[in-house]
Amino acid sequence: MTNPDIEIATPEGVFEASAAGPEDGPLVLLLHGFPQTRHTWRELLPALGQAGFRAVAPDQRGYSPRIRPANVSDYAPDRLVADVLDLAAALGADGFHLIGHDWGGQVARLTTAHHSERVLSLSVLSRPHPAAFARSFDLDPQQLSRSAHHERFVRPEATDELRNENFRDLRIGLAAIGIPAPDVDAYLEVLAERSALDAALNWYRAAAQVDGLRTIDCPDVRVPTLYVWGDSDSSVGRVAASLTADHVKGPYTFLEVPGSGHFLTDDGGGPVVIKAVIAHLNPGQRGHGAPSADQGRRPRS
Q: pTM to 2 decimals?
C-alpha cells in the first residue's frame, strides 16, 4: 500500500486516505469493504478526479492505524455512519456524493437513509439495501449459506484463524474469485498487524450485537441511487439485489454486470463501474441539476 495522499483529522482520530481532483470540486467519499482497503478505488478515484470531482477514499475505522479502537462497540453501525459525517466536515463539505462497496456500501446506505439532506447521490457496489438483505433470508434458500462467513467472523478466534500461515485460506479464497495476487497483497499489507484485522472483524461483531443481518433498522433511500451488482456474486444473491428496488424512493438505476462477482473493482468489472458511476454523478447524463464547483461545500476555516 502506498503512503496516503492526505491525512484527515476528525474528533475520533486520523484517517489515511487517497485523493484526486480539484480541492474545490464536489466531494465524493468512497468507502471500501472487507478485506479491502482504499486500494480498491485505485482506478475509479483518478477517473472521478479527471471528471472534476474531489474524490477521497479513506482507509476506514480500524484499517487506519490512528483510528483503531479496541472495543467492539466502537464499530457499531451508528459510529461508522458518524465517521462519514466527520470526514465530510473535516473536508469542508455540507453535501457530498457517496460510493461504497460491501461493508462500505452498507455504511453508505445507512448514511444516506438517515441523512438524506447531506447526500447528493448514492452509488453502491454489491451490497443490497439492509432491509432487502434481511428480507432475502426468508425468500432465497441460498442466501444463508452465502452469508455464512458473517457467523464465522464474529467468533473471537476468527482473527487468528484468518492470520494462520500468512492468511493462507483468505488468499486462496480471494484468488478463487478473481482477485489478482498483487491486489490481494496490497489489501493484506494493511491487515498484517493483528490489531488491524481484529478491528476489521469488529465491524461484523458489532453489527451482530446491534442488529444482526435480519433486523437492522434502515429507512428507504430517497436520493438518486445507482446499484451495481455482479451476477456471479457469491455473497449476495439475485433476490437480495432485486428487492433493493423496493427500498429506493428516489431516482434509481440498477446495473447487472455479467460475469463479475462480489469484488467488482478487482475481477474485471472495474471499467463498467467507472463508466456507470461517472454517468450517475454527471448531471448532464443523470438528468438532474448540475452541481456548481462549490455545491455542497463550505469555505475552509
A: 0.92
